[in-house]
């Protein structure tokens, strides 16, 4: 296991030797021509052979971290230190070797992408490429050109193998639609967030004949079909709770977008999330599917406009929430609303029409018997969603020293402090630590 980082460095070094030509950062086409050179070399196979299959995860997460953080460690002998933007520096007194991190070059970045995709093709784990694509997109809003570069390298190394991955249909479609959205030259439709509108690199290579450019389903039809799935899950849970029957959704059916959906086989984007340990819990398998869809909606929310997302996604989420009797589903829906709310605030601020409206709707929801009839986790998620739309911190709102609050959100603020007031002391201190 300790050898894995070393193997990664070796592999990266080897791939880099193949790609020494300078690359134009914005021209993904250079990446495409380079990937042609990248046939899996025999030495690479040998090295991969050394990796036990369970070490593959370690290697993949190393590469993933690299793609997200875009930093390399450099070792220098004392005195020959490289002065380029060194952020972190550690000196080993005994060896006189200095370890520091510096920003990756575009060639290193591309090499790591090629490496990851080639390994995954080799071991037939294309689902991993998609999971990493998700993470890269999720974390990569601030460095869009590199994000797109990564996705196009994945696309060109994996080719059609990516497209025909049945079990990851929804994830692949999501990644594809987000790529096309970001590369769309049509500025008339206000689908993308204001951040993307003003920061979209002008020189994106447009995606023609790449693996993402297949015309199957439009973004609004797809998103509405994801929402249909959430609705369906909530409904079938409600029916199940009423009749004590096992949930009998078909394991595979056609979603309203016409895509085939495999309920049990999700792509594990949210595999880190630990839900209930109790395997007898009937909603567990479906909860995994449910949160998978929620993660996909969150990714769209990262890039799409507040107005569009509010009107087409959030309003429906709130509807589903009203009728949903499953605590876990409700909490998950509220966490999504809260996350989308945060995107809205980042993008357009506190006083945009959609934000004000959402704040009012959440306040109404919390004011009804909804909160009192729900478990503490659901109550916390609901309050958290409202707080995400607030210019004030939780501490300020509930602190008695601040005196009467003023400003546009004063009603909702007093609602939050009322809610806080009726909690037990123990749950109050839990709330303080949770929201601080
Ligand atoms: C993206 O990240 C790399 C590596 O940190 C950096 O060199 C590059 O300037 C960044 N690009 C943008 C547009 O921020
Ligand atoms: C998701 O994770 C489960 C358990 O870790 C695993 O059995 C399954 O094969 C994974 N699914 C995919 C598509 O990788
Ligand atoms: C905190 O809230 C939970 C859930 O409602 C409840 O079971 C628990 O008793 C509360 N704690 C106290 C000390 O009241």
From TrEMBL:
<feature type="signal peptide">
    <location>
        <begin position="1"/>
        <end position="20"/>
    </location>
</feature>
<keyword id="KW-0732">Signal</keyword>
<protein>
    <submittedName>
        <fullName>Uncharacterized protein</fullName>
    </submittedName>
</protein>
């Amino acid at each position: 296991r300790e050898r894995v980082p070393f193997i990664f460095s070796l592999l990266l070094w080897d791939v880099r030797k193949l790609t020494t030509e300078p690359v134009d950062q914005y021209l993904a086409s250079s990446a495409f021509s380079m990937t042609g050179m990248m046939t899996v070399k025999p030495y690479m196979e040998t090295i991969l052979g050394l990796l036990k299959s369970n070490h593959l995860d370690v290697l993949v997460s190393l590469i993933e971290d690299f793609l997200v953080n875009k930093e390399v460690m450099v070792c220098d002998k004392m005195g020959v230190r490289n002065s380029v933007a060194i952020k972190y520096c550690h000196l080993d007194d005994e060896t006189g070797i200095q370890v520091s991190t510096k920003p990756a070059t575009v060639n290193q970045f591309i090499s790591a992408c090629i490496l990851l995709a080639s390994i995954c093709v080799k071991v037939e784990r294309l689902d991993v490429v998609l999971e990493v694509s998700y993470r890269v997109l999720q974390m990569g809003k601030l460095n869009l050109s590199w994000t797109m570069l990564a996705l196009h390298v994945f696309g060109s190394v994996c080719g059609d193998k990516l497209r025909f991955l049945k079990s990851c249909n929804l994830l692949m479609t999501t990644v594809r639609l987000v790529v096309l959205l970001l590369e769309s030259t049509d500025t008339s439709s206000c689908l993308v967030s204001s951040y993307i509108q003003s920061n979209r690199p002008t020189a994106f290579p447009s995606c023609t004949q790449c693996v993402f450019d297949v015309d199957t389903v439009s973004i609004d039809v797809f998103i509405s079909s994801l929402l249909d799935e959430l609705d369906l899950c909530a409904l079938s849970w409600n029916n199940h709770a009423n009749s004590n029957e096992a949930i009998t959704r078909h394991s595979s059916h056609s979603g309203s977008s016409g895509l085939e959906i495999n309920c049990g086989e999700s792509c594990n984007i949210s595999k880190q999330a630990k839900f209930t340990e109790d395997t007898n819990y009937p909603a567990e398998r479906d909860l995994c599917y449910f949160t998978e869809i929620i993660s996909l909606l969150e990714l769209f929310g990262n890039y799409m406009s507040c107005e569009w997302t509010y009107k087409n996604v959030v309003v429906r989420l709130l509807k589903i929430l009203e009728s949903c009797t499953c605590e876990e589903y409700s909490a998950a829906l509220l966490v999504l609303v809260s996350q989308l709310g945060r995107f809205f605030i980042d993008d357009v601020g506190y006083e945009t029409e959609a934000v004000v409206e959402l704040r009012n709707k959440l306040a109404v929801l919390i004011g009804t018997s909804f909160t009192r009839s729900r478990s503490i986790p659901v109550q916390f998620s609901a309050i958290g969603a409202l707080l995400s739309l607030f210019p004030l911190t939780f501490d300020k709102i509930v602190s008695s020293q601040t005196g009467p609050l003023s400003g546009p959100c004063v009603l909702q603020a007093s609602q939050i402090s009322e809610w806080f007031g009726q909690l037990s002391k123990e749950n109050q201190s839990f709330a303080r630590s949770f929201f601080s």
